[in-house]
Every structure is written in C-alpha cells, then in structure tokens.
Amino acid sequence: MQPEHPKSYSTPAPAQTVWPPAAIPGQPGAHLRAAQADDADPDLPGDAAPGSPEEADAPGGPGEIPDAEPTYGSELLDELRAQIARFVIPPSGEALDAVTLWVVATHLQPAWQHAPRLAVVGPAKRCGKSRLLDVLTETVHAPMLTINTTPAAIFRSIAEENPPTLLVDEADTIFGTPKMAEKNEEMRGLLNAGHQRNRYVTRVVGNDHTPHQFATFAMAALAGIGDLPDTVMDRSVVIRMRRRAEGETVKPFRSRRDTPALHDLRERIATWARPLVDEAAELEPGMPVEDRAADTWEPLVIVADLAGGHWPRLARTACARMVAAEAAAEEDHPSGARILADIRRVFAGRGEPESLSTEELLYLLRQDPESPWAEWGRSGLTARGLGAMLREFGVKPGNVRVADGTQRKGYMRNRFLDAWRRYCPAVHSVDTQPQLVPSGDTRPAALGEG
To answer: What CATH code is carried by the domain that includes residue 403?
Structure first.
C-alpha cells in the first residue's frame, strides 16, 4: 500500500535575591514552557509512559496536524516502536518516537542533505545505552559497529552513494576527557563533517602519496557516558538514557532468539522505503524549529510524513519538546551563551542601566545561587575570565561612569544588544526592580551604592 502524505504544514522580599527567568539560547519562550511544564498535570497525555502513542500538543504547532488513517508505513513504524520498547526504556515517549524515526531514516540515506547523529548518552553505567545500540544494530541500514575504530578505517568504509550506518559504542573512551578529545580530534572532525552531504576529507594514499578525497556523509549513532563534544551534540538527536527504576522491566535481548524478527522487520522497512527515496528528497516539511536543529530533525519529520497516520504529529511533538529540552540543558552549562543570558538577567534586575562596572557585574553574577560563577576557577569568575568569554561574542570592556561619578572599567549595555538578539533573544521583562543584594550584605564601596 502506498502511503498518504499529509501537507507540510510580585515585589520580592527586601532580603531575597530575585532573578528574572533565564532565556534559552535560540529558543524564544522556551524558558516559559519549561516553567509551565513544572506545573503540568502528571496525568496529561504529554506525560504518557514510553511506549504509548498518546502525546499532547507541543509548541511549534504539531498538534495542528490531525491524525490520518493508518497506512502500511505507519503500521511499520508502530511495530518498530513496539519492538524497541521491548528491550529498552527510553526517557520519554518522544525519545522513543525519535529513535524509531531515526532508524527508518537510515534506510532513506540517499535522500538526505543532512545525516542526523543519534547521541545516546547517560550519566552512568547500566542506563541501557549499549542495549539500545544492540537493537539499532539489527534494524538500521547496513550497520557498521565500531569500538575504537580509527578514522582512516572509517574513511575507507564509507561508500559514496549508500554509506553504512556508523554505530559507535563507548564513545566516552574517545571523547571522555579533554586529553582524549584532543587525541581524537580527527574522529570528531569526521563526525561533524559527515553531518552534511558533499563534505570531504583529503588524504594521500599509495606509495606515490596521491591525494584522494574521502566522503564523510553517513548516519551515525554514538553511545557513551556523559555528553559528547558540543559540536557533535549540536548535530544530534539526543537521547538521555536513565537507569531503570524499581518496577520497570524489559525483555532481555538474546541475539539468537530476537535477531530474526528484527531482521525481518528491517527488510520490510527497507522494502517500503526504497521506492520513496526520490519523493523524500523533494519534500520540505513544515518544522517547529529552525537552523541546525531543523536540518537535523528534517529527515525524521519527512519519514513521519511519508508514513502518515499519527506519525506527522508525533514527530513534530518530539522535535519541539526535545530541542527545547536540549536548549535548556545547554543554557545550564557555563559555556557558550550561558554567560550572555546571565548578564542579561543582571541588567534586567538592575533596571536596565546604561552600564555596569566590571566589579559590580562580577559581584552580581556570583549572587545567583544557581549559576556556576561563584565557583568558577579557584576564587570565582574573574575579570580576565569574563573578558575572555565575552570576547568570543564581540563584546569588550571599556571605561564607564558609575553611580558615584567616577570612571571605572566596565561594560556598556548597548554592546550586548546584538549578541543578546542572536544568542538569547527572549528574556522576560521585569515589572519591578528587585533588590539583588540582600540587606545587611557587605559590598566593596567601589560598587557605587550609597
């Protein structure tokens, strides 16, 4: 049966430090959605257990797409989803949907401009990462399982037109420490370049050292403890696995018993997908996210649109929620745009002054109990450290006039406007001017209060 294709489509207490809500870089309003999620009813469909196809509407409009009648393609995806859920417990129903769509997307590789990575990460051992990779190995297109494989071997294994699907287990042994990451910089470069079609690496081969171009484009799944390098995570659909809680059970995976059924399903998926390559390459679906997140998720959404049924809605729901969750996680890290978002909150909390001295800005940054700046380095974030972070965004200190009329080194608010607009565009306005310094606290006189 040929699939049907839906159209794309209060005044704070004086002695309490109050911080306006933080913006999430690249996701306007996502910080509000996160706050709303904290108050959500646990019985709503959006919090359905993994394995359930019931999902609530998500930001970005996925709920506007009505479910269509089931098709052969949607039934294949339902079957694959159920098979994956037999052996692993993903962190959410959306994560299970994403894994299902990613597996099917590997069978349509020739259609894609971007090859999304699947980052299967967890905080510790025994979170089900390797077990999920076991299931992926038996269901993806042309699996190539690698553990400590050299980049040179991978270069020579990736075909031009129909490359294998790379499955990298124990990725933490490759990127787990800065020293490891530096040693394996070539592997990171390969994974980053291979996210987009027509990105090549040149190596000399043979006794005469003839330059030769090697293709890098291939779908890839990586499993490991802890986050992968930022540049890899940014190109990934991220599945954050957890240990099973008491009462959660899964079926043990046994190759001899379970592989035949998974291989049969893989062949049926491949047979269904093969005639759809040209159609998939032409589709430009409506996406609930933008930029690189849209590039990464587009193949999964196209798979859902080709399958029909409830999958177009499930795909967009998963996309919107998981991208917002990763953006929130990124904002919590002390690298990247976190410093910009926190400085914007400081300016908002002080009533949007034209400038702040470096000393005052550092002091206020350290007052946020949820920020890392008080413990940054040996004695907290320093003026030099702050300058180095902001230099990456084109923001430099200069002479500013403080409240006591003297001039000091500091930062003009208008110097941040372009960086805020690009990296943390949504910050809640502050109706009141909260007192960021608890009463009775002692500050340096140079902060200009008094």
So the answer is: 1.10.10
